[in-house]
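To: structure subgroup
Subject: Chain for Friday's discussion

All,

I'm putting the inputs and outputs inline so they're searchable in the archive.
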Amino acid sequence: MIDLGTATTVKSADIKSRKKYSFEISTHDMTYLMYADNEKEKDDWIGSVGRSIVRCSGTFLSRNDVKGGGNTGGGNGYGDEEDDDDDHDGVFENSENHPYFND
């Protein structure tokens, strides 16, 4: 079991591991190398773990905070403020904008 409250990053590790469908979860003390059965499963794991890391890190903002309902002063660049798509609950819709998802 990995306490995602201590995790700092999750990213693809195919090159590092020299195996397909691998990814790593890093904490301050250790890096865990994991393998999925296919590319979609790997991407799903990276996305799910990444969202959990963001929520645990304290940088996660609710949809109301992003739209200006919280103490952020009207948004912070974490999402499209006019987007009413609630599928992501304030999590970054474009993973390129967040360091947890960079390879």
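Points worth raising on Friday:
Residues 39-57 form the longest helix (19 residues).
Residues 75 and 94 are 16 Å apart (CA to CA).

D.
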